[in-house]
Structures are given as structure tokens and as C-alpha cells.
Amino acid sequence: xxxxxYINENLAPGNLGYFFVVLSFGAAMFSLxxxxxxxxxxxxxxxxxxxxxxxxxxxxxxxxxxxxxFYLIKTHQYQYNYVWEHSSDELQPKYIIACFWGxxxxxxLLWAFWQMVLGCVLIFTAKKWEAPVMIIIALSQxxxxxxxxxxxxxxxxxxxxxxxxxxxxxxxxxxxxxxxxFNDTEMHNALGGLIKSVTKVNxxxxxxxxxxLKQVGGQGLNALLQNYxxxxxxxxxxxxxxxxxxxxxxxxxxLWNKDYTGWVRPALPWAVFCGMFLGTGILMGGAWAxxxxxxxxxxxxDPVENGILVPWLLLVAGLHAMQIYRARKTALLGAIxxxxxxxxxxxxxxxxxxxxxxxxxxxxxxxxxxxxxxxxIFMFAFIFIAVITLIVRWRHIPSSPKxxxxxxxxxxxxxxxxxLSLSALHIVSITSIPVINKVDGLVNxxxxxxxxTNIAPPANAAAAYHVMEIxxxxxxxxxxxxxxxxxxxxxxxxxxxxxxLLVAAIAVVPTxxxxxxxxxxxxxxxxxxxxxxxxxxxxxxxxFIDMIRKKTSKxxxxxxxxxxxxxILVGALIANAKKETISLxxxxxxxxxxxxxxxxxxxxxxxxxxxxxxxMNGYTVTYxxxxxxxxxxxxxxxYKKTDSTTGNIxxxxxxxxxxIYQKKNDQNMSYAPSSKHYWTxxxxxxxTSAYTGDSKTKIxxxxxxxxxxxxxxxxxxxxxxxxxxxxxxxxxxxxxxxMYRVTMKLKVNDGFSTEYASPAMVIKGNQIxxxxxxxxxxxxGFRYNTINIADGTHDLIVLKGxxxxxxxxxxxxIIFPYINFLWLGSVxxxxxxxxxxxxxxxxxxTA
Length: 847
Known about the structure:
- It is a single chain.
- The chain is of the alpha+beta class.
- The strands form six sheets. Strands 8, 9, 10, 11, 12 and 13 form a six-stranded antiparallel β-sheet that branches. Strands 17, 18, 19, 20, 21 and 22 form a six-stranded antiparallel β-sheet that branches. Strands 6, 7, 14, 15 and 26 form a five-stranded antiparallel β-sheet that branches.
- Helix 5 crosses helix 10 (245-256), helix 10 runs antiparallel to helix 11 and helix 20 (556-577) packs antiparallel against helix 22.
- It is flat and about 115 Å long.
């Protein structure tokens, strides 16, 4: 039997990395056990110390995994499957770090890294809550570490796996899929002829495929991830993602240890921290989508986007419920339920993203790596813990002895929390349609029935969400404006009405101005949401000013955050409701790229031929050409606007939408937009298809025409207008005598654009040499045949062949009015959360 020996694979770093994976799993599990025993008896400091030591070893292991994986990516060790799939030699250095989270394994690692950091911080800060909180975190870390184990085994002739290792070799990955590495596969085509093997006498075959891979390179990072936002967005989002476990851990710890109320104070700063980073990560994702994705906008109600938005809504609801409890000792059960659902739905979002259940319904989801079962165990383990704990402790959770006053702040804060939870329920119900269909199909298969529902996802996703989310947003916006004027326990009616009426009157002014500026009249819901948003902004600005006047910072954080939230609603509403597609194909021009597009897409995509100016919404837009750099192809699109009276140029700028070429998954390109930013609008420009010509194509001429023309004369040849501009005569002295060159300068117009050609005759002695010219884009060739000295005419032969397709792009351009309100609101909301976080930390330290 022949054996194969693979050489130069550089196995040492991979083995070291996998050692760290196994060590991180074992250390996290041991830390879980140690903290469990310490929580049973707080006097057993030995178990506490063992738990701490084990978790620190786990932390060092996670850092070790990070370091080794970075080394493999940085040094292009393509014999490792993860490196081959997500990096390449052509990748810009700034995107090397993004390769970490290019695949599921890297995102699990990033999640585990942040939870490890948070766990280390809590070891030093949680004090009496250390044991129960670290039990939850160590359990989650154990599950996350298991996602990187990459174990494969068979039980009862059934293949099973636990995790996917980032240090799996390429040949192992192909063997796992029963694919020959170098035969009848894409690898064979890529590496053909580069692999050198030597068969020795003893039957061994030595293969050096690593050297061949160095020449071929990796598949490259997904083109959509090659954006600076993807360098900073995932770490921020996953920090928020990971931090949702902390309030949940405190809540579970409070129930386990029968300290039903004490957990709220230490958990509150963490809830603010989580809300700040998770919200910022979501908004960064919107900015990335706006700059990189082709759907034209910052939000598309994508299932993965929704999967993160829903936990944030519930977290904000829980944050308000916790604040209610601190102030009035009510809503404790609501706080526990909200923070529990937050973490459970984070795990659900993780399942949606990585299980493959979304299929092609999301541009954000990872490929299915066969971990669906393991992800379900991860999620249901924490659901089981939460449900059993709540059932056992339910009747012991303190409740308010009396109902809240309708005029109190706590009453309306809790109403706001309920509205947020209903909003989250509505979003998750639509998002979960693929999961519902999947479960329904499995149940029917199991029971051998044919009652499958096969719920169809909404044809218009935005409309399906907006029908409920707009009313919810209106209520929330009004409550964030009203709530700051309410007082705990009871509110003086006269004070409240005076303040609210003043704010209500002032809010009318920006609402009317924005309605006029954005032409927003057609939908009463939009107008009401706009007014509610400005009501929130004006009300919280008034509170903030009053706070400065009284020299107090009591309400500064929430007020600032609410101002930001109101501005986000204004920007999102106007930008979405009044966005205008200006690239309308009113000419009905067809090119191959639009042949199979829907009627709507054909109408909204303008065809721009190279160097042919086209009118578009008051602009003259011209496709000027393309340029390449690395695996990027940039299209220069010039926008020009002139004053209709004076003819002076008012605006003149270039945008550079681009194609990013990649090898990954047989996709050869992805399109990325470019935008022109104004204070009041953005012009979003996206190339949807392109034909840049083929310089190697030779024209086959099948028709010729003779024309006798004089200098300065214009004539029609087929559908072209040709002008003999002038004749240029040149004389060159050579050792064999004088050489004469006579050149025609021709101007050719096809009704759209003008090109030039210069056919010539070279006369030397009795010999005439024709130096022909052609205009490839027109399918024309020219020969300067003879000169008729008698009448001063010139004999021109025009050769005509099949005209090649002209260089063109199809362009989609959208105006997003007042979108800067959205980005400004994002910054303001982050500042509000940050101020609130500082205040909560100080309160906790003081307490």
C-alpha cells in the first residue's frame, strides 16, 4: 500500500494553536466546576482560587490562539484551511486583521476573547458576586471553546463533529468532504503542474503542495468585508455581543443565592456598557452596509441585522426596568425577564447566523459548517438554566405591594419597556419564518404527515416591518420626550402640563420646516413620527439646558442618549421615506446586463456609455473610464451641474464606485458604491454591471466603401459622419533618399460620441506603404489609398465590420436626503450612553 508524505507544511504553529484550543476548553470547564463548588460554600477559598487560576489559564490560551492564528495569516500559511479561505497575497495590510472574523471560527474566537476579558475584569470587581457570575461566563466560554475543537468521530455509523478548528489543514478539510485534493477539483485546476512528487523505492510518495500554494495564493477575504468599517465594526459589535452575558449572569446569581434584589446595583453599569457598545456596533454595521453593500441604504431588515437589533431593544427595556427598581423597588421581575431574554436572543442570533438556516436570505450569514446541532445545544442549555431557575424562584421574587400611579415616571417607563419588547417580538416573528418552516418540516417528517405550512417570507420586507415598527417608534419617541418631565411616585399636573405644552409647541417648528424641506406630506404616520422625534429631541434638549442651568448632572446621560435617538429617527425616516432614485432609464436602453433584470431594475438603472454625457436629475453624468489597483477596479463617474442662466459650472465632482475581484466561492467580483456627501443629502452611486471592452478582440471587416473627399469636407458613411479635418505632410531625409508621410486627420461621429483616426501613406521612391487606422469602438477601419493631384481629392477607403459592444456601466444613483441626522444622532447617543456609564460606575463605587 502506498503512503503519502506531505513535506514543508510547517505544522508546529498549527499544533501549538490547537494545543491552546484544547487547553482553553479544559481550563474553562475546570473553572466552571471550581466556581460551582465555591458558590455552594463561599468559605472554600481553595475552590475560588482554583477557579480564578483556571480562568486565567483559559485567558492565556485564548490569547495564544489569537497570536498563532495572526502569525499564520500574516505569513500566508495557505496549507491551513482557514488561512487559505480568508486571506490572499493581494490583500491590503489593513485588512489582514479582518481575516480573523472572516469566517465562523474567527468570530467564535472574537466572541470568546471579549468574554474572557470581561470575565477577568469581573474577577477583580464583582466581589461577592464573583462565583455565580463566573459560573455563567465559564460555562459560555466552555461552549465557545468547544466550537473550535474540530473533533470528528462516528457513533452507530453516524458521523458527528464538535466544532471546527481554525488550525485544520487544507488537505484535511478536503479529505473530510471526501474530495481529492489534487484530482478533479478546483485545487487541481489551481495547482496543476506546480506540485512535485517523488515516489521512493519503499512506496512512499512525497508531496510538497505547500510550496505550490505559496505561488497560487489564497482565496482572499470576502470582497464585502474589504472596507475599513469591517476592521472596527466586528470588534465593537462583538464586545456588545459578549457583554450581554454580564447582566444575565448577575440576575441568575441573584436568584441562585436568594439575593433577589442585590444584583441590580452591580449589573446596572454593565447594562449601560452593553447598551452602548451593542448599539454602536449596530450603527457601525449600518454605516458599513451604506458604504459596501449593493442594496442601497444603511438598513434592509436583513435577518442577521434583526437578530442583533432585537436583543438591543430588550436590553434597553431591561435597563429601564432596572432603573425603575432602583428608584421605586418595582419592576424587578420585568428586569430579570428582559436581561434573560437579551442573552437568550443573542444565542438565537448566533444560531441564525451560523447554522445555515437562513440560506440565501441574508448577506451577513456565515456558511453552514455543520454546527447547527451544537449551536442548538449551546442555546438550549442557557434556556434550560434560565427557565428552571425562574420556575424554582418565581414566587420568592419581590413584587410591588401596590400599583404604580398613572402619573408616575415608573409607570410610563415600564410602558415604554413593554412597547420595546412588543417591537422586538414583532421583528423576531418575521425574522424567524425560515426557522419556523424548518422546524415544521422536521416535525412533519418525524410524524410522517403532510401538514407543512411553508410560510412565505414577505415579498416587501420593509413594508412588513414598517406596518408595526412605525407605530412602535412613534410611541417610544413620545415617551422619551414625556418621561423626563415625569417624577417618580407622582407628578404635579400643572408643572407637567406647562412643560409639555411648551415642548409640544416648539416641536411644531422643526417638524414643519423639515416637512417643507423634504416634501413630506403624503403619509400621516410619517408626519406623526417626525413630530414625535422632534418632540423627543426638543424635550430632552430643554431638560439638558435646565440641568446645565442648575449645575447638576442627574439626567445628563439619558437626556443626551434620547436626543441622539430622536435624531436617528429623524434621519432614518427622511432618508428612507424620501430617498429618490435619479438614475431612471427613461430611454428604455437595453444592454445584455439588464436583459434578465426585473422591469423595476431596468427602469432604475441608467446605461452610461464611456465618454458619452447623459442628463440625470439636473446633472450631466459621464462615465470617464476605469482604473485598477490590486484586486480593485474603480470606475470614474463624473457629475457636473451648470447654471441654466449663466452657463457657469456650479458643481463638478468625480465618484469612484468599484468592483472588488476575488477568488472566493467561485465569485469573481462584488460591487461597492461611492457617495457624495452634502450637509442635507448624499448622492449614493452604485455600479450594478459593467462592460469594459476586450482589447484583444480583432475586428473582421466585411464591407468597404471608397470616398473621394477634400480637406475640410464632411460626408456620411453608413450611420457615421466623417470629416476630413486636414492633411499633414512630413518629409524625412534618409540615406536612401527622402521619405514622405501624408496623414489624414479624420473626425468620426456616430450620433453619440466623437472619435478620431489618422490613416497615412508613406512614400519612399516608387514604393507606397499604407499605415491603416481603426476605431475599434465603432467597428471601422480606414485606409488612405491615393491622392488625386488633378482635382485635389483624396481617396479614402472605409472598412466596416461588426461593431463591438461599447464600454458601458449600468448605474444606480439614489439621493438620501438629511441622512446626516442619522449619523449625528448615532454619535450623540453614544455620548449619552458614555456619560450614563460614568455616572453608574461612580454610583456603584460609592455604594
